[in-house]
Amino acid sequence: MSDNLRSKPWRKSEYLGDKTTSFEQKEVIRQRLKDNIINYKPLHELMPLHHTFPRVNILLFGAIGSGKSSVFNTISSVFKGKIFDIAPVGRSTSSISTKLTKFQVMYGGIAEQLRLTIWDTRGIDETHLMTSQTMKILLEGKLPDRYPLDPSSEVHLDSPGINTAPTLCDVVHCVSIIVDASTIDDMDDDIYQNIREMQTVMISSDVPYVIMLTNIDKICELTKADTTNAYKSVRIRDAVAKVAKKFGVVQTAVFFMKCYEEETFLDVNVDITALLALSGILHNCETYLHNFYETVIELSSAQSSVEEDNKTLKAEIAKLKGKINVYTNQYNEKSIERTKLKKAMEEKVGYGEKMLKIMEYGKMKIQASFIETEIVALRVKRDRLKMECTDLLNSPDL
Questions:
Q1: Which of 180, 167, 198 is nearest to 57 (CA)?
Q2: DSSP letter string, 215-274
Q3: Helix, coil or strand: residue 138
Q4: What's the burial of 60, exposed, middle or buried (CB within 10 Å: 0-12/13-18/19+)?
Q5: Angle in degrees, CA 69, 74, 76, rounded to 5
Q6: Are 122 and 97 in contact (CB under 8 A)?
Q7: Residue 210 phi, psi dihedral angles, 5° rounding
Q8: Alpha-carbon span 10 to 31, nearest angstrom
Q9: Phi/psi of residue 22, nearest 5 degrees
Q10: How many helices (H) and strands (E) does the chain have?
């Protein structure tokens, strides 16, 4: 198989053209892609004014070692601006993920979240294949975060935490089937047949799915050197065609990326490829939501009201925190003043035989008493504001 690069991309992208892109241009492309996803709002162009659907849910599904958790960690790293491993990752024959984990993708400050949730599940193997019942319950959004999940075991709907009445906000909006690009031909037949069976469940549930090829750097040296070369790589093109045929999907439903594993710093080329893949998945989420447009409008209206209340609460919290800082600073200043005064009073004691010094000492003692009273008052105000702030932070709507 040829390891050459085509002169023009075999897959068109509005961000990567025919000509060689400089590092500075790639930095701009990465930021544009990040900004698009940071500002992403599901079905935004079709939404009435002030309506916002909360977020989309993306389920990662695949064999042990295919790179499911690494996919999330890579996406998370891109938006955190540094290598950031949250989901446990391993290359053993047993799955590192042992439960369903619903990861929020953070950016900027810790309170900033993308409008998407990535669900990581235990990988399947020859002895732990996914059952149709478990997949159906997963897609319906009935399982809570951190639910211990063995794909081959039956899920009991009377278990604690099961959501018996999920809404459109709770369901899976797109499944990303993770496939290791370096082992397409060596995939175990039981695992392959199980994935195909789960595709049938996804289709019957009207949930779109895509194929995500990982480890593309292991099948193409030129892509290993620069991950964006994948768009011109003959080997990556052929791998996409092969996996599309193997799983019965169109090639445009196959995305690819390199995951961060050994790196300690971000690579703009890895980031761009990951962001393009995530953008493609979000497009498929939009397709799902479009089929339930009226329900989306109803839920987004209620969500918008909650978000406005949250903004008000957060503004109150910020105001209270500002007051706490003011009172804390005043408290600290008075404490310093008190310490200085006590030291001065101790020095005056040595001159107690002189009436003048005794009077000065008395005045200092009265002044110290006033300062002590002010300190107590400031401490009370500060503690009361901290309690109010804690109550707001514990509000169930936040």
A1: 167
A2: -GGGT-HHHHH-GGGGGTBHHHHHHHHHHHHHHT--GGGEEE----SS-SS--HHHHHHH
A3: helix
A4: buried
A5: 95
A6: yes
A7: -130, 165
A8: 24
A9: -75, 165
A10: 9, 7
pLDDT digits (tens, 9 = 90+) for 342-355: 777 666 555 445 45
Q: Nearest CA to 85 among 98, 101, 94, 72? A: 72
According to DSSP, the residues that pair with 98 across neighbouring strands are none
CB 76 within 8 A of CB 84: yes
> Which residues lie closer than 8 Å to 344 by C-beta, 6 or more apart?
364
**Sign of the CA dihedral with 198 first, then 201, 206, and 207 last:** negative
Paired tokens of 25 = 């241009």
Q: Under a CB-based contact definition with an 8 Å cutoff, are residues 133 and 154 in contact?
A: yes
pTM tops 0.90, yes or no = no
Nearest of 63, 84, 75 to residue 116 by alpha carbon: 75
Residue 277 makes CB contacts below 8 A (sequence gap 6+) with: 212, 255, 256, 257
Is the pLDDT at 395 greater than 90? The verdict is no
Distances 69 to 3, 103, 316 between C-alpha atoms, Å: 29, 10, 38
CATH of domain 23-291: 3.40.50.300
Tokens representing residue 331 in the block = 């408290």
Q: Which residues, including other chains, have CB under 8 Å from residue 219's CB and lie 6 or more apart?
A: 181, 182, 235, 236, 239
Highest mean pLDDT among 255-269, 290-304, 314-328, 367-381: 255-269
Enclosing H/E stretch for 287:
helix 268-290
pLDDT one-digit tens code per residue, 101-123: 999 998 876 568 899 999 999 89
Q: What Cα–Cα distance (Å) separates residue 236 from each residue in 15, 180, 255, 317?
A: 18, 12, 10, 51
Residue whose token pair is 């903004």: 311
Spatial distance between the Cα atoms of 282 and 58, rounded to a whole number of angstroms: 9
> What pLDDT shows up at residue 360?
61
